[in-house]
Amino acid sequence: MKKLKKKKIGNIDDNKPHYIRFAVIKKDINEDGNLNCEWKWIKLKHKSESVQDAKDFLNENIDEILLELVKRQETTNEILVLNTRVLFTFLKAQSGGVVPQIEGIEDIAGNKYTTKKFRVDNVKFSILNRSERIFTLEGSGIISEIELISSNSTVDNKNYKVRVVNDDSIAYNDSWEGFESRTMHEADMTAFDDTNTNKYVLLFQDICYEDSCYLEVYESYATFDYINVKYHEKIGIL
Fold first, then answer.
1. Pairwise CA distance, residues 183 & 175, whole Å
2. Reduced 3-state DSSP string for the chain
3. The total number of structural domains that make up the chain
4. At 219, which CATH number?
5. What are the tens digits of pLDDT across the range 4-41?
6. Which residues lie closer than 8 Å to 208 by C-beta, 6 or more apart?
7. Which of 72, 189, 228, 231 is 20 to 30 A from 22 in CA distance terms?
8. Does residue 194 share a domain with residue 145?
9. Based on the domain organization, do 166 and 226 belong to the same domain?
């Protein structure tokens, strides 16, 4: 049986304004499936002149605890993302720049998919035309990776928006900064300033499509070093 940690649940009794009551939850569960707990009265550290003062005191402390929990969760998420990037970098370095696929999709699907790659270098936008459809894929398949790379030498290189549409549905549509703010909350997309390579990175992964898929960059003031695409094209009926 999973052990439960002790928790304290604050409660104010109107008849005892200078005291706060806590439920001390024990580590076991009784026969009815409920947590075993016992109530204790603890005197507040400062003298409360009213029940409202005691309630305010409790609420202030709860806010502080919640804020601390949020901060710790954000830090934990950042560490997980960094660990993933470090692991990816090591894998890439050990395999000569290409991450090996164990039992790739071609093997699993019985050679019904073929893996293709292409790269568009030095993508620029003019004053008269700040949007461009970078590619359109026809048929059925899975996009393994879309990678947009630009130099961080100027903030203009992250001043752009991206739209990814699969089967007439919008999979992604946001600015680089918008994607950056979502990085900690989404598994198949990341945007960050890579200070090791001095690049702005925007990465999308695992986008499935049945009929077509395309990538469009718009409202762009950026110059991309390159845009890299890797996808698995379906070539038969599974």
1. 12
2. CCCCCCCEEEECCCCCCCEEEEEEEEEEECCCCCEEEEEEEEECCCCCCCHHHHHHHHHHHHHHHHHHHHHHHHHHHHHHHHHHHHHHHHHHHHCCCCCCCCCCHHHHCCCCEEEEEEEEEEECCCCCCCCEEEEEEECCEEEEEEEEEEECCCHHHHCCEEEEEECCEEEEEEEHHHHHHHHHHCCCEEEEEECCCCEEEEEEEEEEECCEEEEEEECCCCCEEEEEEEEEEECCCC
3. 2
4. 2.60.120.1390
5. 444 444 444 445 445 545 444 444 555 555 555 555 55
6. 141, 142, 143, 166
7. 72
8. yes
9. yes
Residue 181 and residue 109 share a domain = yes
Token pair, residue 96, equals 């000569």
User: What is the per-residue pLDDT across 161-194, written as a single tens digit (0 to 9) for each?
Assistant: 999 999 989 999 999 999 999 988 887 889 999 9
Does residue 59 share a domain with residue 129? no
Q: Is-above-0.70 flag for pTM? A: no
Note whether 113 and 229 are same-domain residues. Answer: yes
119 and 68 inside one domain? no
Task: Give the length of the chain.
Answer: 238
Provide the pLDDT confidence category of residue 127 given band limits of 50, 70 and 90. confident
Whether 3 and 27 have beta carbons less than 8 Å apart is answered as yes
Q: What is the span of the domain harbouring residue 193?
A: 105-234
Handedness of CA 26, 27, 31, 34 (dihedral sign): positive
Q: Which of 3-12, 15-24, 141-150, 213-222 is the least confident region?
A: 3-12
